[in-house]
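User: My collaborator sent over this chain with a note saying "see what the structure looks like." That's all I know about it. Can you take a look?
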Amino acid sequence: MPSHLFCLSFRVWSAVLENGRLMPEPAGGQVIKWIPQTPTFKFYNVPAKFSGPAGTAKAFVVDLEVLYDYGEAGYKDVVFSYSTTSAFNKIVTSVKFTGDESQSLRKMEFSVNHPKAGKKEAQYYIDVTVTSKKYKLNSQKRFIINFKHQAGLGPGGQKDLLRDSVVEKIRAKIPGKDKDRDFKLCYASKRDGFSTSTFHNKCDGAHDMLLVEQR
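Assistant: Without extra context I'll predict from the sequence alone. Here is the result:
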């Protein structure tokens, strides 16, 4: 048998301080008002400009991240929607949001069908809204699409003969402001045949000639 027996009791006491001054307890006990968080999101890995042809829809994909502190349950709770101006309804199409709904990382897919009569560069937008189904709270961001009409290196080129990524690499090697100019096609072996004389007849005397060869 133990020679001594100790009995200990604890009382948890909390105090409310305002600027270091003890405040009286509220009548009826403590009152805590909880306000649910509003979900939001951000885009990342967005190119400065989206480029593509005119008169044909081109698909794009950008990454986005859900910013919501309720974990997997919170990610499953949010839904995405979008809108745009009526002037862009036939230009910005096929908008959808994909990815694992239990994760924060998602993707936004869309297509741009730049008009043939449109300017070389244009700006479109998509208003994206994320909403909590449970708390009915939402936030909205405008996604800006800076679009550049790029059909090869200039007028006369065959459609899709050079991919956008290839054209960008070629332009990056052109010095000065000429990298942004359009080059008019004077000779193409696929169109004009492999003939040295034809090449010279069509291209001799052309200023600032750019020769692209595939080897």
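A starting point for your reply to your collaborator: The mean pLDDT is 85.
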